[in-house]
Predict the structure.
Amino acid sequence: MSQKIRTAIEPTREENYAEWYQQVIKAADLAENSDVRGCMVIKPWGYAIWENIQRILDGMFRETGHKNAYFPIFIPKSYFEKEAEHVEGFAKECAIVTHSRLEDDGKGGLKVAGELTEPYIVRPTSETIIGESFSRWVNSYRDLPLLINQWANIVRWELRTRLFLRTAEFLWQEGHTVHETYEDAMDETMKMLDVYAEFAEKYLAIPVIKGEKTEGERFPGAVATYCIEAMMQDRKALQSGTSHFLGQNFAKSSNIKFQNRAGEVQYAYTTSWGVSTRLIGALIMTHSDDNGLVLPPKVAPSHAVIIPIYKNEEERENIMTFVKEIQHALKAISFDGNPIRLEIDDRDMTSSEKGWYWIKKGIPIRMEIGPRDLQNRSVFMGRRDKDAKDKQTLNFEQVITSLAAILEDIQDNIYHKAVELRKTYTQNIDSKEDFYKFFTPKNAEQPEIHAGFANSHWCEDTACEETIKNDLKVTIRCIPINAEPEEGKCICCGKESKRRVIFAKSY
Ligand SMILES: [Zn+2]
């Protein structure tokens, strides 16, 4: 009988991936469910990841000419009704404010009162209310392009929710821009898709595929939706960001008109694009292992922890003096343009307990300092991307001179692991039989981790997309932007196809 290796997280990914995900979040203390159904409480360690994501993305948005603004959380129902497809797409998941106050019900409780003449929708996305402002801000071609971003919370009344991946309320940013021409708006759409892809790969260490959504998966009201798709460790796809080319649809419904260079009044072209706290879910599922969270150093709340190990007060004093010396020297060191973010864990716990505490929280580097390390002016260092027992001794000078490079190495290492995983589980599949076999779990009751991305031909007919979705719960994740044209036969109906698309199960 083989003995099971004990892991810090139970169950393991292989045993029950969905439950493993919840346990990783719990062990890292990232977030918890609240009494408000589907709404999460983001705890400090989780929120700090979001703040790093915000800070970096915000810099990238400014770099590309965007400015931040803020618009109301409530959208009058009449605004919402203006764009027919948009209403249809979001109608089933809206939170609606219908009353304005509470009154004594005479039984010791409260009753709702003050019915509003027009209900407000709690924003599920802000195209319609921002469009209303834009219609007043844009009058001439000289006002364009108008490049605005908003950091906000939104509400989509989801029935089946999961921390970070799908919650009724979530945090996000939504970019909204207005342009003179079709080409300008399309350039913007693609530019922001590139910004998202760069951010995901460089900072979150998540390899992504840039592509276009099929008509059936498009944002309601958009002319075209582009996305970045990533493969999680259970080989399902996670849509991690979207950029929408809205053409003149929303300009027409919101009346965004301007006088063009020829002196004529015309409708503008708009775009919108967003990423959300879902990125934290993507990060957890891409990198974490059976011992808990693994964080890309560039967005980790802290880069390293020092764990002093001592038996008495005298040892403690001497070791803490050395710890402070390291802390001071590291103040002059930066990683990715920011000072090293350091934790010192001097709590009254065993060093092993502390070690595992930080492993589960995903901190990239752990440095233990005991009496013997102090004598040698060295630390015993463990990396989160390596086995928990795989540690090495570094002397004081090495810590100071190599810490940033080690963080960079961890960042690269976890990125390449993710690239390898995607490579291993992506296949070109050309026969319908193989395709169905690829996506059918052996045990339907408790589907094991299997399948991945299938690169297969599609005839561009929505009916084939629907058939595959109904049969296998598999969807076309995207039509990759840089896919080479290739003649082939649709995986579903066998008709002519011009290129391969990516099929996968998804979150
Ligand atoms: Zn077909």
Observations:
- The mean pLDDT is 95.
